[in-house]
Amino acid sequence: MKRLEKINSKILVLPNKDVDTDQIIPARFLTTTSKDGLGKHLFHDWRYEENGDNKPDFVLNKHGNKKIEILVAGNNFGCGSSREHAPWALTDYGFRAVISSKIADIFKSNALKNGLLPIVVSEKILNTIMDKPDSELSICVQSSKITLPNNDIVEYEIDEFSKFCLIEGIDQLGFIQRNNSSIVEFEEKRNWTP
Q1: Mean pLDDT by 10 residues, the chain (194 residues)
Q2: What domains lie within the chain, and their CATH numbers?
Q3: Could you tell me the pTM of the whole model?
Q4: Which residue of 102, 106, 123, 126 is most buried, as measured by CB atoms within 10 A?
């Protein structure tokens, strides 16, 4: 995972509500255990015609939306099944954060474990952000704050462990492996067996 300390990016607004993980990445693309290449299947059924051509009206296909790191989505983003491929597809595409007024718990957990910052804001703040689809936001992970285009500051909640892992660019296994020498020392010195 890449370190995630601060994001300064234009936003991509997907106003749809109740976006489930099968819409984020359809089940037929879940045959891989690799994160690489899943971005091309992100929102596949909304993004492509049956013949593979881009649907010109879908937000990801519009000119200028290729380097955006912040997805702003309608209420209840990431609902449905618990597939970890959903945050994999979002990060492989290039997103570093998702902002919504509600994000499904399992999706939120999977996102944090895979370097994607899920941010829940009030419906009022979400509507304010969505009303300016070409704007840029600044997100600071350390302070847990978003700077809006009008320079208003909005705080969001994130647990300290997830924040630490995002800033360090590690997942839960990476956190454990950082303490490998202490674990080995403990194993060698203990006088009991499990």
Answers
A1: 94 96 95 89 96 94 81 96 93 97 97 96 96 94 96 96 95 80 81 74
A2: 6-189 (3.20.19.10)
A3: 0.90
A4: 126
